[in-house]
Write a structure and sequence with these properties.
This protein is α/β, with parallel strands linked by helices. Helices cover 31% and strands 23% of the residues.
Length: 318
């Protein structure tokens, strides 16, 4: 088996806070193979965006190893990191706030090429027209400003900006959550098509499990800065093992009232990372928690091929 494009080991992130520091990620480890789409799911506040930003070193990790194409990103100098950046790009959640109102679409799409000294001005403009066509926008959009476009069109421009540098990795951070439901499917279908045509490797961050099931190969389930479960998409949706994953699945609306009535939805809010529960961080909301859950932090254990669960209750595997 070839080495993964991305390998994360023991990632941790602490932010300064009053009276000390706030631990938002703890012992995060996973791989992403070339050409694979890995979903990262969990409630708001679970640390999904923090992982994506640490992975691209938009923020600095507090501990751990981030390997990309078999070299450690955390060891790169500022110059080396600047040379690496074209290989990994970010699609932001908000298509309104992430595009400058003072720049034309052409300037937005060629900015990264210009900064990295790629091509002549004519070649950069030609590249901008190519990526506009890839996201199904008319190349004439190059002369217009972002405010002249709808939310869905703006997100297409954001995707085009990420593609302009021909990256090997894209981190897509909730790329459809700010859009109307009618537009979301169009953007998801576009991302699926681009991934297949261009062979993109992607970390797809979302709280929408229906979208994740459609686009992803594997899924990582995150809760309060810790990984609860990792599995291939079809296995996770057919047979979720962790109680938290099952609760997320139960939160997906069902058109059948009898099915909806039998579901067990989570109660209460996700605890504060400033005061996490002892032992398993999910135990305070877990419907099958036992006293032992408060005593030890469960590690990810292998339950079957490519399926890992962080739960001490082995009887859940049955």
């Amino acid at each position: 088996m070839s080495a993964p494009l991305v390998s994360v080991r023991g990632l941790a992130k602490r932010f300064p806070s009053r009276g000390g520091s706030l631990q938002v990620l703890t012992d995060i480890s996973f791989d992403i193979a070339r050409g694979e789409v890995v979903g990262l799911v969990g409630e708001s506040g679970s640390g999904k965006t923090t992982i994506g930003r640490c992975l691209l070193r938009l923020i600095e990790p507090s501990a751990g190893e981030l390997r990309f194409d078999n070299f450690d990103l955390t060891m790169l100098s500022s110059r080396e990191l600047r040379n690496w950046r074209p290989r990994a790009q970010y699609i932001f959640q908000d298509p309104f706030a992430s595009l400058s109102p003072r720049m034309t679409v052409g300037e937005i799409l060629t900015e990264g090429l210009d900064i990295n000294g790629i091509g002549s001005r004519a070649e950069r403009l030609a590249r901008a027209q190519v990526v506009l066509e890839q996201v199904e926008l008319d190349p004439s959009a190059i002369e217009r400003y972002a405010h002249e476009f709808s939310g869905g069109q703006r997100q297409r421009i954001g995707i085009a900006r990420a593609l302009a540098l021909a990256p090997e990795l894209i981190v897509a951070d909730e790329p459809v959550s700010a859009l109307d439901v009618s537009i979301q499917a169009q953007i998801v279908n576009l991302l699926c098509d681009l991934q297949q045509r261009l062979g993109l490797t992607m970390l797809f961050i979302s709280h929408d499990l229906a979208v994740v099931e459609y686009i992803c190969d594997r899924v990582i389930v995150l809760y309060l800065g810790r990984i609860m479960e990792i599995a291939r998409c079809e296995d996770l949706y057919a047979r979720p093992r962790h109680p938290y994953t099952r609760a997320l699945m139960d939160a997906i609306p069902s058109p059948v009232p009898q099915v909806q009535a039998r579901r067990h939805l989570l109660t209460g809010d996700i605890p504060s990372p400033a005061n996490p529960p002892s032992g398993c961080v999910f135990r305070t909301r877990c419907p099958v928690a036992i006293p032992a859950c408060a005593a030890a932090v469960p590690s990810l254990r292998h339950v079957e091929e490519e399926h890992f669960v962080a739960c001490i209750r082995e009887d859940l595997d049955a």
